[in-house]
Write a structure and sequence with these properties.
Blueprint (H helix, E strand, L loop, with lengths): L3 H11 L4 E4 L2 H8 L7 E5 L3 E5 L4 H7 L4 E4 L6 H7 L4 E4 L6 H10 L4 E4 L3 H6 L4 H22 L8 H14 L4 E2 L4 E4 L20 E6 L1 E3 L2 E2 L2 E6 L5 H19 L7 H14 L11 E3 L6 E5 L12 E4 L2 E4 L3 E4 L2 E6 L2 E4 L8 E2 L10
Parallel strand pairs: 1-5, 3-4, 5-6, 12-20
Antiparallel strand pairs: 1-2, 2-3, 7-10, 8-9, 9-12, 10-11, 13-14, 15-18, 16-17, 18-19
Length: 362
């Protein structure tokens, strides 16, 4: 039986529910271990059921240890199974439920009160187990290897898409299941785009290049950003890089149990504000990482949840100046009992020149 079922059962009692139904893919996997694309997890005080159609019965039987596997399809629906379970109060993922599902449940579950879980499963997922941390660490290690590889690959004349494809190919060869998200490779003035996914722009000498990427290992994500210069950085590029690095390191050193995401955000933001670039830092400082690359806790002005040991977060300040370029530096960080541990091991010193003249500074 998946150990997370016990946590969900505690939630069940705390919210005075008769059952919890999960169908968001990441929550479904968290509870059952199922990696397929279709299915429901139903957890009550005494039962654990995995409900899916014919295509996934065999897979569920292998992956969902300790679960009763129930097939639905042409003659049996999910609402039939729920009615058979005689649940008076059923917790559901209201943020993931479609309008059609809501109508169906209201119409066909006449004796069941549908209760929103209000993100409770996401809150459970925000504190990682040792095994979850191990998987995230492995994904981070693959990303570190990929950065080292790509620094020897980048040269003038390549297009950003070449670099993004090489990153993906390398990480998959190292054991990644897939990318955590579409890799951001933004060069020259495009580096002012915080989410500037790779384009057909040619990289040129003098370009500042933002590389934001990650991979998934055994279901768990990594996320890292480094900014490099293809050639010698000019004075303004160096100035902006140094400000972002100082903000990133200062916020990072403040990570500890009890501090909130809003407090961490403020630490980095104040440094950038005081340097005169506050208007160019428009996103939050970071986010939680796990089965999803963006999950709880929030590391931004609205992040009022205190950090706990076992949370994995990013610290990623940036400065983005239109028609000039931008810098972001991002680490993946584990909150520990007495502080933090950085999972992204790649250098944060400004890397210039790259391979084309064999002068890599690391």
């Amino acid at each position: 039986m998946n150990k997370n079922v016990g946590k969900i059962r505690s939630l069940l009692k705390g919210k005075n529910l008769d059952g919890i139904l999960l169908y968001k893919p990441e929550n479904r996997r968290y509870a059952s271990g199922f990696t397929g694309s279709t299915g429901y997890v139903l957890i009550t005080e005494t039962d654990t059921k995995f409900i899916t159609d014919f295509r996934y019965i065999e897979q569920a039987t292998v992956q969902c240890k300790g679960f009763e596997i129930i097939e639905i399809g042409n003659t049996k629906t999910i609402t039939d199974v729920l009615n058979e379970s005689t649940l008076l109060k059923l917790g559901v993922e209201e943020d993931f439920m479609t309008y059609g599902q809501s109508i169906e449940f209201t119409d066909k579950l006449a004796d069941t009160d549908i209760i929103p879980l209000e993100g409770a499963i996401l809150k459970l997922r925000s504190v990682k187990t040792p095994n979850e941390i191990k998987n995230i660490e492995k994904a981070a290690d693959i990303s570190d290897e990929a950065l080292e590889h790509i620094l020897g690959f980048i040269k003038p004349g390549l297009v950003e898409l070449d670099i993004a494809l090489e990153l993906e190919f390398f990480m998959r060869k190292r054991g990644a299941e897939r990318l955590s998200f579409d890799s951001i490779v933004a060069s020259g003035t495009r580096s002012s785009l915080p989410h500037g996914v790779a384009s057909d722009k040619i990289v040129e000498i003098g370009d500042i290049i933002t590389l934001d990427f990650g991979c998934v290992y055994n279901g768990y994500c990594s996320d890292m950003t480094r900014t490099v210069v293809l050639g010698r950085a000019d004075d303004r590029q160096k100035e902006i890089y140094d400000i972002v690095l100082r903000a990133q390191k200062t916020a990072l050193e403040a990570v500890r149990p009890g501090i909130t995401g809003a407090e961490l955000d403020s630490i980095a933001r104040n440094i950038i504000d005081d340097s005169g670039y506050g208007q160019y830092f428009g996103h939050g400082l970071g986010h939680g990482v796990g089965l999803e690359v963006h999950e709880l806790p929030r590391i931004n002005a609205h992040g009022d949840v205190p950090m706990e040991p076992g949370m994995v977060i990013t610290i990623e300040p940036g400065i983005y100046i239109p028609n000039f370029g931008g810098v972001r530096i991002e680490d993946l960080v584990l909150v520990t009992e007495d502080g933090y541990r950085v999972l992204s091991k790649s250098t944060k010193s400004l890397i210039e020149n790259l391979r084309y003249n064999m002068n890599i500074q690391v």
